[in-house]
Design brief:
Radius of gyration of chain B: 19 Å
CATH architecture of one domain in chain B: 3-Layer(aba) Sandwich
Distance between the termini of chain B: 22 Å
Oligomer: heterodimer
Number of helices of chain A: 17
CATH topology of one domain in chain B: Rossmann fold
Number of strands of chain B: 17
Shape of chain B: globular
Order of helices and strands of chain B: EEHEEEEHEEEHEHEEHEHEEEHEHH
Helix content of chain B: 25-40%
Structural class of chain A: alpha/beta
Largest sheet of chain B: 7 strands, mixed
Number of helices of chain B: 9
Strand content of chain B: 25-35%
CATH topology of the largest domain in chain A: FAD/NAD(P)-binding domain
CATH class of the largest domain in chain A: Alpha Beta
Helix content of chain A: 25-40%
Radius of gyration of chain A: 23 Å
Distance between the termini of chain A: 46 Å
Bound molecules: flavin-adenine dinucleotide, FE2/S2 (inorganic) cluster
Number of domains of chain A: 3
Strand content of chain A: 15-25%
Chain lengths: ~475, ~290
Amino acid sequence: MKKNNQRSIPKRVPMREQSAKERALNFNEVALGYGPEEAVAEASRCLQCKSAPCMRGCPVEVDIPSFVSLIAEGDFDAAIKKIKEKNCLPAICGRVCPQENQCEKFCTLSKKGEPLAIGRLEKFVADHERESGKISLPKKKGPTNKKVAVIGSGPAGLACAGDLAKLGHSVTIFEALHKSGGVLAYGIPEFRLPKTVVEKEIDFIKKLGAEIKTNIVIGKTKMIDELFSEGYDAVFLGTGAGLPRFLRVPGENLNGVYSANEFLTRANLMKAYLFPKYDTPIKRGENVVVVGGGNVAMDSARTALRLGAKNVYLLYRRTEEEMPARREEVQHAKEEGIKFRILATPKRFIGVDGWITAVECIKTRLGEPDESGRRKPVIKEGSDFLLPADVVIIAIGTMANPVLLEATPDIELNGKGYIAVKKNFRTSKEGVFAGGDITTGSATVILAIGTGKTAALEINNYLLT
Amino acid sequence: MFKILKKEKLAPLVFGFEIEAPEIARKAKPGQFVVLRIDELGERIPLTIYDFNEKNSSISLIFQEVGKTTRQLASLSRGDFIGDVVGPLGKPSEIKNFGTVVCVAGGVGAAVIFPIARALKKAGNRVITILGARNKELLILEKELSSISDDFFITTDDGSKGKCGVCTDILEGLIEGGQEINRVIAVGPAIMMKFVCETTRPHGIKMIVSLNSIMVDGTGMCGSCRVTVGGETKFCCVDGPEFDGHLVDFDELMNRQKMYLEEENTSLKEHEAKELKKGKCGCKRDK
Ligand SMILES: Cc1cc2nc3c(=O)[nH]c(=O)nc-3n(C[C@H](O)[C@H](O)[C@H](O)COP(=O)(O)OP(=O)(O)OC[C@H]3O[C@@H](n4cnc5c(N)ncnc54)[C@H](O)[C@@H]3O)c2cc1C
Ligand SMILES: Cc1cc2nc3c(=O)[nH]c(=O)nc-3n(C[C@H](O)[C@H](O)[C@H](O)COP(=O)(O)OP(=O)(O)OC[C@H]3O[C@@H](n4cnc5c(N)ncnc54)[C@H](O)[C@@H]3O)c2cc1C
Ligand code: FES
């Protein structure tokens, strides 16, 4: 490591991936990842800065310099242990974290060239551990005889449950769907996050001692107050922001128009891309229009492409600059042939006999910045144009799902309809904590993990004082 | 895993299951439904909770074989397991003493209306039930419904039992005969519900329908089940399944129900081919 002279930084070791042409036709993972030599070579680029600026960018404060140096020494087992001290879902984070805005953004190397590929290294050691089958469990504290119910098995719930189990509490996760993982299971596609990887990471949380009960909707099957009367001492809500938003323009309920949540749930959770082997159907469009510019829009577009679409248009009302999607995903989408139509928005959906046939769009330009600091799109009157479409996917964001919230009027919400939490992740209801997207609105996996972990500490304090 | 405690054949292609599901049995209310998935390869489908028995820790479902999933479900027997059952979902029916309520059930809609009618009766309503089907073989729950109804009518399209015609004929007769009606509840095929709504609309009678849109999760997460009610998009699984019938866009509902006809056919054909291979011709399905 020391031999890296500041003036001549070696280039980032490229990661092998399926070619754009090949991968556009299958659902296999795009990134093939580093091999051991590549990982060691990349890790050796680390400058081991004393101040570790990278750690400032990590919401869960993984000791990045230490795990990277362990990889450079070839001690992969120790490296993964180091990561798992802070992050119990590394194979997932190594794949889906927006490292470019987090750890890698602060990497000293980025001032002179390409930052250290921290995400790829994390993925490498996590995969190495999983493939070797030697999964080591961290030390657990002795049983506290306290019971905690965690609602929702997305990253927030999993992280919270894992940490609570490590602290010696008895933890049960309640999940509404038949499968655990939240967005990791139903939203993010196989080609970006293989489901076997998600399952294995969830197995790890179970091995830590957390029990998962699927098919239970809290607020319907069971109420929060019942959990307390059944002997739970605290409750963590990690129910996500799962209610899809629609555009509210004419024709939105035509056949062939999907919310991204529905399209991705059919494809990922229900495996509709393997229909008819799997029973759940999905419409395979020839001309697909995806509305939105985030990760969800990219995932929808790339899924539609893999389902056999000839043309996939991505309609976004701002420019590529403002797209909230990860750069890498935008890049991948473009390489695969997704056609970007920026500065345009749907005006209405046109159908024949109840089926979508085209999207009437209108062009936009960027006006003054809005509250989020991004420039607001302004309609250009008279600039209408048509895009042919037999499938449309609306990926313009989500809101808080009302099922649990309606059943618990004593939990206060914030102005945007999400659960209001204090600094210590407490809600207005005694013994009930919350974290992840249900408190922040749609954010990131690592932020959900971060809030889940901090909430676990707060719950621990609450239980032991 | 959810154990099938009892299986019953109610009509050609209509079956009743009693399923062990203590948590759902404890919470279920009239008008609510479950979503089930038979196995790992299966689709998630909604079925109304026909009855619930807290003591037995069980719920009852009644379903008609219409496609692949219900066909496969019908091939299961007592002692078999269903992989996933989640519920109770949807908003419960509004149960109050409204006065006189007419319950109109078409086909397997009888299974949906029974728990509602029973609860309405218990709440002190005068319950008039109109049960309709294509022919007498397809009538289900005749005994059950008539036992909780103050007045009970049957209609069949072919006149093989009860009055020949459709349920709206009887309803019209009641209205025109001066019967005071405070509320009408209709459950059945969308087209039938639409006609019932058209019958009550001119008389300004409060009209409730239970909609059967295509669902996936049943928890408000996907929007597959969206319906237009009073010009607004609603999610049938969480905002419904019951809505004010006079505000429902039935044409849109019927259109959306047809979204996967092609795939449903493929799925059923594949399933039939597999059944044939296994030597099941289908004739043992009711065992
Ligand atoms: C398609 C898509 C792609 C994304 N890509 C990325 C990415 O590349 N990188 C990134 O960092 N982030 C990405 N995100 C965002 C990220 O996935 C979320 O921010 C994160 O999953 C939020 O975690 P969570 O635990 O708060 O909630 P969720 O993951 O939404 O999990 C909530 C869980 O709670 C369950 N639940 C809800 N209500 C109840 C109830 N009443 N009872 C029981 N269970 C209930 C739900 O079924 C669900 O399983 C993406 C999101 C989507 C949709
Ligand atoms: C709230 C609700 C309650 C219901 N209660 C009952 C009941 O008590 N008894 C009963 O027999 N039927 C009930 N249904 C209808 C039942 O869900 C469908 O008959 C079943 O899903 C058909 O599946 P299939 O694979 O056998 O047939 P398919 O061949 O797949 O479909 C036949 C028709 O059923 C509808 N359908 C298909 N898939 C779904 C789905 N995932 N969700 C909803 N509808 C679908 C479509 O309109 C389709 O054309 C209910 C539906 C809803 C929405
Ligand atoms: S079935 Fe998914 S939102 Fe209603």
